[in-house]
Structures are given as structure tokens and as C-alpha cells.
Specification:
The chain is built from 13 helices and ten strands. The protein is of the alpha+beta class and 407 residues long. The protein folds into two domains: 182 residues, no CATH class; 177 residues, no CATH class. Helix 2 packs across helix 11, helix 2 runs antiparallel to helix 12 and helix 9 crosses helix 11.
């Protein structure tokens, strides 16, 4: 019996029991759709995280005061919070060979007021290099300069969200004087809009001032809350971190036996950690969804057992007229594979549709990869062969005479 005839017989057997075949496929359909959707969500989240970090500057380095205590540890003491100074910033600027830009970082929350409009936000004290580090651009006006920093000038550069809330009627904010708490500040520039990132953070809710202004006029402190830097290229980020570590240890006069009283993190490190976490979460979700495939496979085995029992006399007649055991085996195996692959195709279509729906309606980061579709077909075929083999083998081993006598 050739393969074409076996295929036709298998199709006819499935067509004769449409509802039973569909219910058998249902487990495969749900399993494949779930796996594709979960993998699409995980892959989309990873790509979104990488994109967000790239927008912030993939070669950005963040230097914070105090030893890195890790999650769940006690908060830093007042002394530990004051371990970074302007002297450290100047030493890094003058001595480091691997940095493209460096900026101090100090910030404070408060109320922004212009006329009858007010908005709760925060101001960040930085230098000109901050724009390079965070990949920000001034759309109108200009960035404050070195003279403004030396004079601790009351000037600021604001984001689009601040403009929309303080200047709702569309007036030009350049040159206008707004108040941060009680301090008047002149707007000298507006940043180009970057919108929301995938984590829901508004990247345009930003007010930049000279770091000296925030330190002297807002916080009245002489230490920094952090230092941002950008390596010349992403490839030398780790080399830049080692260089900055050596500069700060020398500046703080730390002995070889003493731990750093500062911590340094790079975007590359954060990206790797978050991508790894999302990868593990995606794998966990895919494994949970994959349970449906196992359930579907068991359903196929169960139905094939029922089919063998119902068609015992038919099997005996086929054998009596010359069908070999391999023909019977192939016939039932083809039925199992057809059920699983057909269910897989429907599951793929359903999974892609579900992913598209989540991306379009819920605005979730979703990315359906070609390899997930290919994986679905491979898994479906393997499921059909694995769970269809034993019932098919049982059918092939039936004794023709006993099979014909079966009631």
C-alpha cells in the first residue's frame, strides 16, 4: 500500500469523526497558541528593554555614593551618602582616558509654577555633558553653558511634559520665568520629545539646571548624589569602569584592604541582568503553556486507542487482504500526525492573532519570531509521532483472525 493511499485513508478516518478529531486537536491548539503568545511577550519585553536602555545610552556609566549593598540591605547612612564630591567629578574629567562625557547629578522634588499653572515634578542638576550621556537634544533655545554653571545661574532646560502643563495655551516658554518652589528660574531651552518608554516612564517630565544651582540654591549641600559618564564606545565600557574605580580610590585615599565607598554600574550590566531575568521568566511561562501540549498529546493517544478499538474488524480485514503490519502502523501514525499538525497550524494562527491583539489593543511589547512558529511545527510533529506511536503499534500487532472475530 503506497503512501498516497495511506494518506487518503487517514484523512477519511478523521473526516468521519469531525467533532472528535476537533476536540482532540483542541489541546494542541491551546498549547501552541499559548507557547507562541508567551514567547512573543517575552521576546517583545526583552527587545523593549534593550531599546529603552539604548535610548538612555548603552555605554552609560552610573557612579553612586556608598558601597553597593544590594537589594534588601540597610539604607546608606548620612556619611555614606556624601562620599562623592565635586573634586571626584573634576578628577574623573581630567584623568580618565576612556570617557566621552561626564556630568554630576543632584536632584530635588518640588512644585513648578507659571502664572496660574502648577505641576509637581523634580529638577536635576547636571552639566552640559548630560545631553550626550542621555542622548538628549535641545529642540528650541539652547543648553545652559559653562558660565551659567560657574555663576550658579537660575536657568533651566525643560521637557515637553513641563511645557504642556505650564504653558497649555501654546505660548513660547523660551525666556519665560517660572518658579521652582519659591525660586525664579528662566527657561533657556526646550528638549526634543522622547515620549514614554515601555515601562510607562515619561521621559519628557524633566527639568535640567546647572548642578551648582541645585547644590547651592536648592539643596544647600556640597556633595553629589551621583555622577553620570559615557564611555567612548560600548566595547570599552568595562575598561572605563576600571579606570574610574582607580581614580576614585586614589581620590578617596583608600588602602588596598579597604572596600570602595562608592558603587559603579553600567547600562550594559543592567541590560544583561534584565534580559537574563526576562529570559528566565519567558522560559517559565513557555513551560507552563507547554503543559497544554502534553495534555493535548495525551488526548491524541487516548483517541487513537479508541480508534484502534473501534476499527479492530477493519484492521483484520485489511490484513487478510494483504496489508502488512507496517501499513497499519503508518496509517494510524499518519492520522495522529495529521491531527497534531492541523491543530498546530490553527494554534499558530490563533497565537499570532492573540499577539497582534495584545500589541494593538493593549499596547504591550510583543514580537513574534519566525523560530517560534518553526518550533511549534516541530513540537506538533514530535507530539503526533510520540503519542501516536504506541496505539499505532498496537494496531499493527493485532492478529488478523482475532481482529476479524472482534465484536
Amino acid at each position: 500500500m503506497n503512501g498516497t493511499n495511506l494518506f487518503k485513508i487517514a484523512l477519511k478516518a478523521i473526516a468521519n469523526n469531525k467533532m472528535r478529531s476537533f476536540l482532540t486537536m483542541l489541546g494542541i491548539i491551546i498549547g501552541v497558541a499559548s507557547v507562541i503568545t508567551m514567547l512573543a511577550l517575552g521576546q517583545g519585553s526583552k527587545e523593549s528593554i534593550k531599546q529603552n536602555i539604548a535610548e538612555m545610552g548603552s555605554n552609560m556609566i552610573m557612579i553612586n555614593p556608598g558601597t553597593d549593598r544590594g537589594p534588601g540591605r540597610a539604607r546608606l547612612s548620612a556619611d555614606e551618602m556624601q562620599t562623592l564630591t565635586l573634586s571626584d567629578y573634576e578628577s574623573i574629567v581630567n584623568q580618565s582616558k576612556y570617557l566621552a562625557a561626564v556630568s554630576p547629578n543632584v536632584s530635588s522634588g518640588g512644585q513648578l509654577i507659571f502664572g496660574n499653572n502648577n505641576y509637581q515634578s523634580s529638577v536635576t542638576g547636571v552639566s552640559e555633558g548630560y545631553l550626550t550621556i542621555r542622548q538628549l537634544k535641545v529642540e528650541s533655545g539652547e543648553m545652559f553653558g559653562e558660565n551659567d554653571i560657574k555663576a550658579a545661574a537660575k536657568v533651566c532646560v525643560i521637557g515637553k511634559t513641563i511645557v504642556d502643563n505650564l504653558f497649555p495655551k501654546g505660548s513660547d516658554p523660551i525666556g519665560q520665568v517660572i518658579r521652582f518652589n519659591k525660586m525664579p528660574v528662566r527657561v533657556v531651552g526646550v528638549l526634543k520629545s522622547k515620549g514614554y518608554n515601555s515601562m510607562g516612564m515619561d521621559q519628557d517630565d524633566i527639568v535640567l539646571m546647572p548642578y551648582t544651582t541645585v547644590m547651592k540654591r536648592v539643596l544647600a549641600q556640597n556633595y553629589l548624589q551621583g555622577i553620570y559618564a559615557s564611555a567612548i564606545t560600548e566595547e570599552i565600557t568595562q575598561l572605563a569602569i576600571k579606570d574610574v574605580t582607580a581614580i576614585l580610590r586614589a581620590n578617596h585615599k583608600l588602602r588596598n584592604t579597604e572596600d570602595d565607598n562608592f558603587s559603579i554600574r553600567s547600562q550594559e550590566e543592567i541590560s544583561s541582568m534584565m534580559t537574563s531575568t526576562m529570559g528566565m521568566l519567558t522560559l517559565l511561562l513557555a513551560c507552563v503553556a507547554g503543559i497544554s501540549l502534553v495534555v493535548g498529546g495525551i488526548g491524541i493517544m487516548n483517541i487513537m486507542y479508541v480508534s484502534v478499538t473501534e476499527r479492530t474488524r477493519e484492521i483484520g480485514l485489511r490484513m487478510s487482504v494483504g496489508a502488512r503490519g507496517i501499513d497499519i502502523l503508518s496509517q494510524f501514525l499518519i492520522e495522529a500526525i495529521l491531527i497534531s499538525v492541523t491543530g498546530g497550524i490553527i494554534g499558530v494562527l490563533l497565537g499570532v492573532f492573540a499577539s497582534w491583539t495584545m500589541k494593538t489593543l493593549l499596547q504591550w511589547p510583543v514580537s513574534v519570531q519566525a523560530w517560534t512558529v518553526l518550533l511549534a511545527f516541530v513540537v506538533c510533529t514530535i507530539t503526533g509521532v510520540f503519542f501516536g506511536w504506541y496505539p499505532a503499534k498496537k494496531a499493527a500487532n493485532l492478529d488478523p483472525i482475532e481482529a476479524i472475530r472482534y465484536e
